[in-house]
């Protein structure tokens, strides 16, 4: 029987109590008949399947209670986790200040595991106590991706899990398996089509908004740099092959003439 997914990842949700971890879980599509369920030990579990670059990635998401007495649960569930979502409430400064404790627990029991920082309840931004820039700097210092989400508006939830899945698969060397079958985004297809018919110097003359032209310039430069790298590598290989062919020719010529080569 064929599997219903291509990859399986275990993801852990951590953060203080009342930051809305259950809200995040409830907004995800249910991927199995027995979940979500809550156990008596203070954890909730849910499975969901996301589509990532044409591959089906099944996520087993474990939500641990934010109360201190459940730290032993985090220690046990962190083992074997392939991704961590650290959740805080943008309307609660204390939940953001408490991230260091959760990060320390995670790094101690799951070192090097990819992490995504999630600021929940963006729909209550008028009550914001944590600035987006502050969260971005914290995430950058700790090598994490950063998202602000809203379960009420279904905003950025799936995107944050997709980014975590991508990071986890990349860390485990899985990304190269499907790179050749990658499904390009509409934006990348449009950029590729435009850059193929023009060059970086004529992009400014296109009747497009400045932000789009700026993105196109970056895309064109990146693509040309990749192409130049390939061409330079090809030229280097061809040069080496030519040198080897010339050396082989001289060697045969000298041996044929009875020359002694020291």
UniProtKB/TrEMBL annotation:
<protein>
    <recommendedName>
        <fullName>SOCS box domain-containing protein</fullName>
    </recommendedName>
</protein>
<keyword id="KW-0564">Palmitate</keyword>
<dbReference type="InterPro" id="IPR001496">
    <property type="entry name" value="SOCS_box"/>
</dbReference>
<dbReference type="Pfam" id="PF07525">
    <property type="entry name" value="SOCS_box"/>
</dbReference>
<dbReference type="GO" id="GO:0003924">
    <property type="term" value="F:GTPase activity"/>
</dbReference>
<dbReference type="InterPro" id="IPR001806">
    <property type="entry name" value="Small_GTPase"/>
</dbReference>
<keyword id="KW-0479">Metal-binding</keyword>
<dbReference type="InterPro" id="IPR027417">
    <property type="entry name" value="P-loop_NTPase"/>
</dbReference>
<comment type="similarity">
    <text>Belongs to the small GTPase superfamily. Rab family.</text>
</comment>
<keyword id="KW-0342">GTP-binding</keyword>
<dbReference type="GO" id="GO:0005525">
    <property type="term" value="F:GTP binding"/>
</dbReference>
<dbReference type="Pfam" id="PF00071">
    <property type="entry name" value="Ras"/>
</dbReference>
<keyword id="KW-0636">Prenylation</keyword>
<feature type="domain" description="SOCS box">
    <location>
        <begin position="173"/>
        <end position="222"/>
    </location>
</feature>
<dbReference type="GO" id="GO:0046872">
    <property type="term" value="F:metal ion binding"/>
</dbReference>
<dbReference type="InterPro" id="IPR050305">
    <property type="entry name" value="Small_GTPase_Rab"/>
</dbReference>
<keyword id="KW-0547">Nucleotide-binding</keyword>
<dbReference type="InterPro" id="IPR036036">
    <property type="entry name" value="SOCS_box-like_dom_sf"/>
</dbReference>
<dbReference type="GO" id="GO:0035556">
    <property type="term" value="P:intracellular signal transduction"/>
</dbReference>
<dbReference type="InterPro" id="IPR005225">
    <property type="entry name" value="Small_GTP-bd"/>
</dbReference>
<keyword id="KW-0460">Magnesium</keyword>
<keyword id="KW-0449">Lipoprotein</keyword>
